[in-house]
Design brief:
Layout lengths: L28 E8 L8 H6 L4 E8 L3 E2 L3 H8 L5 E7 L5 H12 L6 E5 L11 H15 L4 E4 L1 H7 L12 E4 L16 E5 L9 E2 L3 E2 L1 E6 L2 H7 L4
Parallel strand pairs: 1-2, 2-4, 4-5, 5-6, 6-7, 7-8
Antiparallel strand pairs: 1-11, 2-3, 8-11, 9-10
């Protein structure tokens, strides 16, 4: 996933207060979620586990026919390490019901696996529209009785154009924002996951042992809370 906008905030400074340990009322931040695709191949999941990564979300499908050739191998290789597991579908302008069937047929997700729609511009063909994203969410919920996590950044914000979407806001938000602080799309009061770096842009940490620079996301809570709440739907 490479669609978040990088920006700087010249007003962000470091104060003595910011260096203090969080109080009991402040939630911890867990930066132990990564997402991967064929771009990260090969991956040494033993090293990934040793580096403290808790959750892995892998690209499974794209459009009506595309399959990430590394998905099945990643899932098998990761299984011994008991990661929280998830998959995502890169939405395109193809027929939506075909995309939903393709994603579910490929992943066969259990109730304990995160399911996700990746809503961003398609560099190699027609891009999924907001109406198509709504249809995808409704059809997937009808098939699985679960709403998918929705991954989005600037394209989601531009597509919403300041209007709250009653269907999409039922989805937990996985925000893509490579900057010092998250800026939410209209309609969401919080993010569920925040992809804060693509391994290069955004705040550190950027790399993971066994992979190198890669997409990393944070969860607003402890590792124990992440494990309890996963897969969020």
């Amino acid at each position: 996933m490479q669609q978040a906008v990088t920006f700087s905030d010249s007003d962000v400074g470091v104060s003595a207060a910011s260096l203090q340990m969080p109080s009991q009322r402040e939630a911890a931040i867990t930066q132990s979620v990564i997402d991967v695709s064929h771009w990260e191949h090969p991956i040494d999941f033993k090293k990934v586990d040793a580096d403290g990564i808790v959750a892995v979300i892998a690209k499974a499908t794209q459009g009506a026919q595309g399959i990430d050739e590394t998905y099945a191998g990643y899932k098998e290789a990761a299984a011994p390490y008991k990661f929280l597991w998830g998959s995502y579908h890169f939405g395109t302008g193809s027929e939506v019901n075909v995309q939903v069937e393709h994603y579910l047929r490929t992943t066969k997700p259990s109730d304990f696996e995160l399911i996700c729609l990746d809503f961003e511009p398609n560099p190699n063909g027609p891009t999924m529209t907001l109406d198509q994203a709504r249809e995808f969410v409704v059809l997937l919920q009808d098939r699985t009785r679960r709403y998918p996590v929705l991954y989005g950044g600037y394209w989601l914000k531009e597509s919403l154009d300041g209007r709250v979407d009653d269907i999409l806001t039922t989805c937990p938000l996985w925000l893509a924002q490579y900057g010092p602080k998250p800026v939410l799309p209209v309609g969401w009061k919080k993010y569920t996951l925040w992809q804060y770096t693509d391994g290069h842009d955004g705040p550190p940490p950027h790399s993971v042992s066994g992979i190198g620079p890669c997409d990393r996301s944070q969860f607003h809570g402890t590792v124990a809370q992440l494990r309890r709440q996963w897969p969020f739907t």
